[in-house]
Amino acid sequence: MFMKRWLKITLRILSVLIILVILTWLAGAFYISRNKKEVLSSILAQLNKNLNGQITATSMEPTLLKSFPGVSVSLNGVLLRDSLWSKHKHDLLKAQDIDVSLNVLSLIVGNVNINQIAINDASIYIYTDSTGYSNTSIFKSKPAEEKQSSNKTSALEIKKIDFNKVNLVLDNQKRFKLFNFNIDQIQGRMQYPDSGWTGKIKLKTQVNSFAFNTKKGSFLKDKSLEGTLSAHYSRKLDAVILDPEILKIGGHPFKIGAKIDLDKSAFAISIAVDKILFRNVALLLSPNISSKLLKFGIEKPIDIRGNIIDDGSGKYGDPLIKVGITVRDNVVSIPSGKLTAANFDGSFTNQDTVGGIIGDENSSIKFHRLTAKYFNAPIKVDTFTVNNLSRPIATGLVTSQFPLSNLNNSLGTQDFVFKQGTADLRLYCKADIDNFRFTKPVVSGKIKIANADILYVPRKLHLVKSALDINFDQNDLSIQNGHFQLGKSELNVSCSIANFANLYYTDPDKILVNLKMHSPQLYLNEFLPFLGPRNTKKKASSGNSMKTASKELSNVLEVSKMNIKLTVGKAIYDKFLAKNLNADISLRGEGIYLNKISVEHAGGTLALDGNIIQQPASNLFKINSKISHVSVKDFFYSFDNFGQETITNKNLKGYLSSLVNISGRISHAGKILPRSINGKVIFNLNNAALVNFEPMVKVGKFAFANRNLSNVEIKNLDGTLNIRGDKVEISPMQVNSSALNFNVKGIYALGPGTDVAMDIPLRNPKGDENLTSKEKREARMRGIVLHLKAIDDEKGGIKIRWNKDHD
Q1: Which of 71, 260, 599, 785 could make an S-S bridge to 578, C-beta 3.0–4.6 Å?
Q2: AsmA domain spans which residues (predicted)?
């Protein structure tokens, strides 16, 4: 019974309260309906109470059920304008409709307390001109004593603020800032403790512009923002603080926190996001930043932490930005290739020097503890830094150890094939970055290559058991401890290249390589690939990739200049064998220049200079040579009888000294082309013999059957030969031999055109052996003299006939 009685009493009390609320609400609604103008005036007066300007509305209509049990009205045609509106023409607020929820009890006793405001179909334009004046000056502050004495309930304390379909613009002409939002919905729920106010703000908006500097473009362009923020205002700090909450930007969750200093117009924003694609992050930034970042790519999602800070001074224009990223087991695309299995911690700031300016000039990007594979070569960088983004300079210490075979199929070109060997590099690099490519590099450090097997395809050079130390000293490069084996040839190499780093990118044809080589034994035919034409193309293929870099290197090797100092214990080329070879050789463009070469050969010495000009079909050569006391038999044998078969090493004995000035053509295989030689040969034969020389044998058969002209011994012979292709012009020459003496001159042709005149006295030189030299000269042409001529016969050989036209 007791429970039933208590329930009845409770129900009666609730019924009374409900009836009381309804009666109160009806009373408020009735009051508003009967006193629209007065209520509107009270609302506007309450809103205008603290304004340096005016808020107006064209009309007011009650909307009784919108905020039950409160009473609400709709203000139509609302305008909020500051006192200087006539000058700048920007309405702070222009709303088609504002719903205002009123406290019923305060309304009945004659006061208007606003519980809730909903702004619908409106535009808010917060404007600051170039002098710093803002239309927000409409909101004036109370004097300090008034603030202290006033009751908090008398202040404008709105519990709920909603924005629906509102365009919000913050335009700061002085600081070149522009923030423009299409707000679909914002719901704010406010409380007002003594310290200020606190609230929950639920928002859904589209960003048209979020530009901290309109000259550089907008962040978050055309991105959506959606989420709930916890905010509170501190009177003591005069600042609004947003606790870190999840806010979806472009559909991806970001953790955002902020502090906004209202007095100084300063702010600090913290951002944290996990598992987001690098490209999506770049597209959130302003074009001046995103255009640079999109030169790079990161395939898998990354973690990012960042801060945006503006002290409100406007001293530098840009806010302070600090960003950190974490990359793990990722693939990073850079203009010159890809970094695979990449791990690093990255950071960006636009104030690298604390206390310095904020901007590109003081910006830096840093990569810490970077490990990756670059075209299959593992690299490690403790810290890599890019400073001054207006004129970027990159610095870093790069280390790596890897087998050279890792580079196969990775360079983008087949110019180099690595079968074995290892590389160990430690390089400190500093370079300008022009359009995201390294230029003017300054490099210090070393690359050590050991036990390498390398095929250089353009020249078909196969180097085995190769090793070298490549040393970089800023712009200069040197090679030490170089050892190469090409076939059976071994070379020990050292070289220096001054200003290599600068010229490599700008003028590779101006690179001068000073190369020193020593070999105990060299097989010259293994170097015949150098006789092929060099590639003189100066520009590599377009595109930023490892293929371009490899092509550039190949191009540099082809167009650079080279000075070679060569010493060889033993040099072998086919039949040619020489000892103690010393050579000074230069490579320039298409030319191989033999500046000075000396060698011991065939019991004597050879010294020569000249050049070989490389051409597509064959090579043009020019030789100036001094031959001293070499075995003529061995000499002709070594040079393959100089491309002719008339006088060969089998026909010659004795020692030759000669001055040779000839030019001709040589094939890419190293063979002298027949009938291509032109020039002059001045020679001396000593203790010589002409053995089985066909023209001489035929003369013997024609006139000296009783003499041995198949082995004609010559104590001394001086002569001059002028070579014109397939014809050899024999200057007048006296031959004194064991079998006969004769004078000879004319043209000896390797093909048609032989016309050699010979004056042969019949006296036997054997009878003149006891005469003095003078007597021999006087008696030489006494007696019967045969005047003969050697000419072509009908079968392509040589025939002897009388010379009717002799002198």
Answers
A1: 599
A2: 3-265
